[in-house]
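Supplementary notes for students who missed Thursday's class. We covered one full example, reproduced here. Read the sequence, then the structure, then the short commentary at the end.
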Amino acid sequence: MKRFCINKKVWLTAAAAVLAAGLTLPGAMAYFTTYASAGGGAALSLGHSTEIEENFENWTKDIVITNTGNVDCYVRVKVLAGSQFTIDFSGDGWSDGEDGYWYYANSIAPDEATGSLLAAITLPEDFMEDFNVAVVQECTPVQYDADGNPYPDWDLAINEGGIS
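Structure (token representation):
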């Protein structure tokens, strides 16, 4: 009889442990198996965008910017190369901004392009290494002052409320 009571206590304790584990197991499994994923994205269009076209011939880059957006915009270009190179610029409608950028004087309408900005590269004597010349272009939508005159604002920023 004593043996039966001990076995009964062991079996009841084991059954209680299994029952307790069974009750907590779904919560524990949920903790270890639950996951969340995020995906996708959204295209953000502010109405202004441009494409750059570069042609290289006779150590001169011919740079043309096309307005691919749906609003008029102004553009500027910076050409980056090593300090050992001399770059001479020319092009109708382009002017040196004295800040490293070359600015196109007029705004460009959608589907129109700037005139060519020519960047002639002069190599040092006996220069035989590979090198890169990078062209960076930026655009900004046309802004209007109180009198309705167009101007570029190169300090525009995108905030939660829009462009400012």
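Commentary. The CA atoms of residues 73 and 142 lie 5 Å apart. The first helix runs from residue 2 to 33. If anything here is unclear, bring it to office hours.
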